[in-house]
Amino acid sequence: MAKTLSRFYIRKQDEKKEMATLFFRVQNKKHKVDALFSSQVQVDVRDWREAVSSEENWMRHREKNFKLHDMLSKIEMAVKSEVEGMHFERENVEEAILAIANPKKSEAARKARKAEEDARLKEEQRQREEAEEKRRKEESAKANIWNYLDSFVEDIKVGKRLNGNDPYTPGSCKAWSSFRKLYNGFDPRHKLTWNDVDRALVTKFLEHLGRLDYMGSSVNKYLVSFRALVGYAYTDGIHNNDRALMCFSKRKVDESDKAAEIYLTEAELQALADMELTGLKDQVRDIFLVGCYTCQRVSDYNNITPDSFTTTAKGTPIIRLIQQKTRNEVKIPIMNPNLHAICEKYGYNIPSVIDVLINRYIKEILRDLSESVPSLAVKVPTKLTMKQKKNEELGKLTIERNAKGEVVMPRYACVTTHTARRSGITNMYLSHKYTIVQMMHVSGHKTQKTFMDYIKLSSDEIADEIDAIANPTKADVF
């Protein structure tokens, strides 16, 4: 009877209650629906059971409870509309029922849902804005030259970034750290980006170096570093300013704009080898001479190990090195008697002294030697390093200048660790015994132009060289 008179009914478990909620079943083959729904309407159990017991009682109940039946009719119509629509969603049916049965609760639920939805949308918007801000910051950080330079220097120091397949040498790390310090003074607020790199910026960079009174060779060194940095960042995909690399051009550097690049003659080197020295000065002298007789950089001649000594297939004693700066392999014949004597002196385990101490002590040693070898005390025009300029300003260093205002120093004061390489190459060239290819094989140079830059001869020396070729009288061995 209940099913015939009304689709709403009281569940069996509620029949013994005084008041119970009316339920109804929804079935639809189209949407494959067979679900039980609550009408959200409560009725008197006894009164409802009596109403559905007969048509007469049902009619009487409808007349007596018009609002109830009107509500139930509306619920039926709403459910029918939902069930017969294009899509069936249980949640939509329940919302439609609640809106009819309990408008206040429905409105409260709607507001709660809206508030929840608004909160969700607000949170999503916040997350989007946060992500966008993070992206902007990352893009800004990525575009900033200083950020890349700073991480680049730190990465090469710890070996996180390699030079090809090899770690950066200590000398390269030192050079890049020096450039970072210089750049920090050029862009102290770290505002410059890769898009700012153009000819105007390079001009400002050169003006900055000019104000600091850097020598031309130092200016070129820093220009090369800046250009290399731009190139590395471009290769790494940090920027797309593909015109930036074309903005850097090395300046022509006159000899007068360089610190004096002297070399020590064979006679001076022999006098140095013959000096009576002890302790650290003895080791510094020997290490420096090894550099002179091998034509290597200090990073190589100051780090020769017993494993470096070997022989060729024909038995020629040689020093085999992998140059730290270029990773070139060089094999240096042990031809000079002084080099052989030094190797024997230390049992082929030549000591190593940090280059700062070598630079300091070799000047003192040569100053003492200049008392018996006057050529070492001859004064030559030169340029001051940044450290020398600072020490002069602080009164820690007295500088002599000639009538032209040029800085002049004794030759012994111009000697550095690199003088050894320059001396070795120049003296080998002056021996007239070896081809350029043979000499480059020893020095490790890849281009003849770079190799020839190491040969430091005055006009008088070139004239003497021509005479020596025309009238060979020497039998010196390199």
What structural keywords apply?
478 residues; mainly alpha; hpI Integrase, Chain A; 3 domains; 3-stranded antiparallel β-sheet; 9 strands
Describe the structure.
The chain is mainly alpha-helical and 478 residues long. The chain has 3 domains: 2-101, no CATH class; 145-257; 266-470, hpI Integrase, Chain A (Orthogonal Bundle). The chain is 54% helix and 10% strand. It has 20 helices and 9 strands. It has helices at residues 2-5, 45-51, 55-64, 66-83, 90-101, 103-143, 145-158, 170-186, 199-211, 216-235, 266-274, 279-294, 298-301, 337-345, 355-369, 386-393, 417-430, 436-443, 448-452, 459-470; strands spanning 9-10, 19-28, 33-44, 309-311, 317-322, 329-333, 379-382, 400-401, 407-410. The strands form 3 sheets. It has a 3-stranded antiparallel sheet. Helix 7 (145-158) packs antiparallel against helix 8. The relative contact order is 0.06. The model has no long low-confidence stretch (mean pLDDT 90).
Number of domains: 3
Put simply, the count of helices is 20
Gross CATH architecture of the largest domain: Orthogonal Bundle
Order of helices and strands: HEEEHHHHHHHHHHHHEEEHHEHEEHHHH
Helix content: 40-55%
What number is the mean pLDDT?
90
Structure summary:
The chain contains 20 helices and 9 strands.
Please render the helix and strand layout as text:
Layout: H1 2-5, E1 9-10, E2 19-28, E3 33-44, H2 45-51, H3 55-64, H4 66-83, H5 90-101, H6 103-143, H7 145-158, H8 170-186, H9 199-211, H10 216-235, H11 266-274, H12 279-294, H13 298-301, E4 309-311, E5 317-322, E6 329-333, H14 337-345, H15 355-369, E7 379-382, H16 386-393, E8 400-401, E9 407-410, H17 417-430, H18 436-443, H19 448-452, H20 459-470
Antiparallel strand pairs: 1-2, 2-3, 4-5, 5-6, 7-9, 8-9
Helix pairs in contact: 4-5, 5-6, 7-8, 12-15, 12-17
